[in-house]
């Protein structure tokens, strides 16, 4: 029997890239999956799409609450797995970033993780079962110049994860974070092309001890492991790097 058979999961940002791979792997393990994403599912992706796509802005509290209610109704069970994957890369000069830009960025990359967790926690508490997996970044603990305020938002996710793990553990709910390094996604490639410095995904492969950059499926496998009570039932409050060993060089 698939490991997550009968469970319902919510994945934010599940239309493409890492999120789409997470959806694919959760479904392969038997879960029914709702994706909350303002971007339509990418028809060119090789991974399975979600059972239910909900056009929901995860920074909008009402939209998230309505999406969770719809997912519960249409997938015929309350979600007990949450993967907070939605986010953007945003790098600013600390002296030039505006308060409005700060608020917009942190609303998606940090606050939305709390908004979605808050929407799902009542049902998880009632079931006395739940797994929250937050997608952070290696930049949460090890960073480089020019990553302001991305590193700050991702570090905040780790604090949020630890607090959820402590407060919700007695309710049967686990919370963990994954911290990817460079992953070969369309978003990463677009970012390198926009920078115009000649850096490519391929050119950075040799910087990794394993000799390659990550794939969306690499991240998805770890997320699914952490979502599983059978495999990871004794893991909570963890922040697990998945970076091909490059963090060893950054430290």
UniProtKB/TrEMBL annotation:
Belongs to the short-chain dehydrogenases/reductases (SDR) family. Signal peptide: none annotated. PROSITE patterns: ADH_SHORT (PS00061). The keyword Cell cycle does not apply. It comes from Conexibacter stalactiti. This is SDR family NAD(P)-dependent oxidoreductase. CDD domains: SDR_c (cd05233). It holds the Pfam family adh_short_C2. The keyword Oxidoreductase applies.
């Amino acid at each position: 029997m698939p490991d997550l058979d009968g469970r319902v999961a919510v994945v934010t940002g599940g239309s493409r890239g890492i999120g789409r791979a997470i959806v694919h792997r959760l479904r392969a393990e038997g879960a029914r999956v709702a994706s909350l994403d303002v971007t339509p599912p990418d028809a060119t992706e090789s991974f399975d799409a979600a059972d239910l796509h909900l056009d929901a802005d995860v920074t909008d509290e009402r939209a998230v609450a309505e999406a969770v209610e719809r997912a519960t109704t249409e997938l015929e069970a309350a979600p007990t797995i949450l993967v907070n994957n939605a986010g953007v890369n945003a790098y600013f000069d600390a002296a030039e970033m505006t308060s409005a830009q700060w608020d917009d960025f942190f609303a998606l990359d940090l606050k939305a993780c709390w908004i979605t967790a808050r929407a799902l926690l009542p049902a998880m508490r009632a079931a006395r079962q739940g797994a929250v997996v937050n997608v952070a970044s290696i930049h949460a603990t090890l960073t480089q110049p020019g990553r302001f305020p991305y590193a700050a938002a991702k570090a905040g996710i780790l604090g949020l994860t630890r607090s959820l793990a402590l407060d919700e553990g007695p309710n049967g709910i686990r919370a963990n974070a994954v911290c990817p390094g460079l992953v070969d996604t369309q978003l990463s490639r677009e970012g390198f092309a926009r920078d115009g410095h000649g850096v490519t995904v391929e050119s950075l492969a040799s910087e990794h001890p394993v000799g390659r950059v990550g794939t969306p499926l690499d991240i998805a496998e770890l997320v699914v492991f952490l979502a599983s009570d059978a495999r990871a039932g004794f893991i909570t409050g963890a922040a697990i790097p998945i970076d091909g060993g490059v963090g060893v060089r950054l430290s």
